[in-house]
Specification:
Number of strands: 11
Number of domains: 1
Strand content: 25-35%
Order of helices and strands: HHHHHEEHEEHEEHEEEEE
Largest sheet: 5 strands, mixed
Oligomer: single chain
CATH architecture: Alpha-Beta Complex
CATH class: Alpha Beta
Bound molecules: the ligand Nc1nc2c(c(=O)[nH]1)N[C@H]1C(S)=C(S)[C@@H](COP(=O)(O)O)O[C@H]1N2, molybdenum atom
Strand order of the largest sheet: 2-1-11-5-6
CATH topology: Sulfite Oxidase, Chain A, domain 2
Structural class: alpha+beta
Length: 261
Amino acid sequence: MSKTILTRRKFLGAGAAGASSLVLGGCEASIFWPIATALSATCSRKQMMSRITCSASFGDALAREYAESEIRQGQRPNGSTDPQSAEYLALKANDFADYRLSVTGLVETPKSYSLAELRNMPSRTQITRHDCVEGWSCIAKWTGPPLSVVLDEVKLKPAARYIVFHCYDNMGSGASGPNFYYESCDLVDARHPQTILAYGLNNEALPVPNGAPMRVRIERQLGYKQPKYVHTIEAVSSFAEIARGKGGYWEDRGYEWYAGI
Ligand SMILES: Nc1nc2c(c(=O)[nH]1)N[C@H]1C(S)=C(S)[C@@H](COP(=O)(O)O)O[C@H]1N2
Ligand SMILES: [Mo]
């Protein structure tokens, strides 16, 4: 059993405990119920208690995929829908022709990719359900290269344990400066076949409200773990030094890091 699986197990345990205690305490239940519901749909309560049977079955399991006929409406834009950073506005004005995705951190060969290069990579198309913690879901079709293809090109260094996604949108500036949206996942999710760098949504170029020109889909995770407007992918051994250290913009504000469905 690899180290990453054990790490994931630890975080899943924390997630399950967090979600159920919040619901039992009646605190913010309406915000967190989808996590508890999702977990109990996947694992029986007994499995949630033991935590081992359930998380062990997660390894390569695919998130459910749907039929075209189940796409009922466009993907509902949520969170940032029109980033205003100068850099983003300049890219958008030129239809993202100058966009580069940088891949940095604990990698042997740091690289950057244009949108055309991403579009020329082997891609995957998947119709999946996006679940937001606010209590709504949307079924949509996403297209893009698997993150694993890029990770194989840049070659992770042995110390890499997490992948961090840095985004263009500033969620609001505080005393310590701007707070850009960011997210992270472990290497199991990073290499999962349904984790893709999505440049396509429902057969069109990904539109600005949903994260143009590229957003990441990590299909076994809740909505806030699906970063939009991604400009940099960074391999790290720890995210303690990034922003407030919890691995994501919403995690820094109390959400669970492991938001598995
Ligand atoms: N960069 C960035 N990514 C983000 C967000 C955001 O505000 N900024 N919101 C998250 C949340 S809470 C959700 S539900 C989804 C919404 O994706 P959509 O707009 O394509 O529906 O994006 C996630 N990724
Ligand atoms: Mo969300």
